[in-house]
Amino acid sequence: MSDSGRRTPLATVTLAQVRIDPVDMRGALDRIDGFIRDRSPHYNIGINAAKVVGFQTDSTLQEAVRGAHLVTADGQAVVWGIRALGQRIPGRVAGVDLTEELLAHAASRDYSVYLLGAKDEIVRTCVAKASRLYPSLRIAGYRNGYFSREEEAGIVSAIRASRPDILFIGFGSPAKEYFMKRYCRELEVPFVMGVGGTFDVFAGVVRRAPRWMQHAGLEWAFRLWQEPRRMWRRYLVGNTRFMLLVAEEIAGKWLRPAGRT
Q1: CA-CA distance, 113 to 216, in Å (whole number)?
Q2: Cα separation of 223 and 172, whole Å?
Q3: 134 three-class SS
Q4: Cα 184 from Cα 172, distance rounded (Å)
Q5: CA–CA distance from 177 to each of 62, 166, 172, 238, 250 (Å)?
Q6: Is 101 exposed, middle or buried (0-12, 13-18, 19+ CB in 10 A)?
Q7: Please, are residues 208 and 201 in contact by the beta-carbon 8 Å criterion?
Q8: pLDDT score of 224
Q9: Which secondary structure element, helix H or strand E, spans residue 141, and what is its range?
Q10: What pLDDT does residue 233 have?
Q11: What was the pLDDT predicted at 238?
């Protein structure tokens, strides 16, 4: 794998040991263009509060995040945490927004895309909608996300044979991060992006929070209202842990003796 897309030559910010690229949407698209020109495998991970919490104890997730070539601030809470620590970041690059921007961008740049994940009817709806919105978009292929570990090698081989420029992976976390880290080299796709539940949103099956809630950092509350039984632990327990992590880091910064880094 080429190191040409690595984050080390560029400035990064850090939150609870997670290194994040302080890019806006335009900056993210520019980086992706560079990855595609380079042609070697690269992948992106979007960081939200739950992933910051998981990073603290999950060594496999740590490896996946540290190996990523583009790490974006997917959650508004992450942006606030970074700024509370006195670091600069343009704002949030939400995975849903980046996916939709990237589909339009791919159509304009003649990039081909592959969609992997979600239920079969969902991913088919996404393909149909993307083709309708962007008639020039090249779809290299698509597949649902329901398969066994034993089937993975064949699926990776099929994706590699289709030679997409961009692969969207619609699994949950941390499954998509594990998959990208495990198969990035073998896929040979210039840019791989984990999109989580974005396929459900794009297909119109799941409603996204109103814009004002997104800007206010309350998108989690909307998701909790939609699916309280499934989401309560992630948001109520996870968000509390996230706030404690940020508070501890802020306290550590102010209590650190002068002159020490």
Answers
A1: 32
A2: 15
A3: coil
A4: 17
A5: 10, 16, 9, 18, 28
A6: middle
A7: yes
A8: 64
A9: strand 138-143
A10: 64
A11: 75
Element (H, E) at 167: strand 166-170
**Residue 142 corresponds to which tokens in the numbers above?**
């698509």
Q: What is the DSSP string of 15-81?
A: ETTEEE----HHHHHHHHHHHHHH-S--EEEEE-HHHHHHHTT-HHHHHHHHH-SEEEE-SHHHHHH
* β-bridge pairing 13-15 and 18-20: antiparallel
- As a whole number of angstroms, the distance between CA 114 and CA 183 comes to 15
Tokens of 55: 């990073």
Evaluate if pTM is beyond 0.85.
yes
Question: What gap in Å lies between CA 108 and CA 120, rounded to an integer?
Answer: 27
Q: Work out the angle between the directed axes of helices 175-187 and 152-162 (0-180°, nearest 10).
A: 50
Report cis status (omega within 30 of 0) of the bond before 174.
Answer: yes
- In three-state secondary structure terms, 14 is strand
pLDDT at 253: 79
Token pair belonging to 115: 């969609």
Position 239 scores a pLDDT of: 81
pLDDT score for 10: 62
Q: What is the pLDDT of residue 112?
A: 98
- Find the radius of gyration of the CA atoms of the chain: 18
Q: Which residues pair with 43 in a beta bridge?
A: 192
* Domain 13-212 class, CATH top level: alpha beta
Q: Which of these, 55, 14, 47, lies nearest to 28 by C-alpha position?
A: 47
Q: What residues of the chain score a pLDDT lower than 70?
A: 1-10, 209, 216, 218, 220-225, 227-235, 256-261
Going from N- to C-terminal start, the domains of the chain cover 13-212
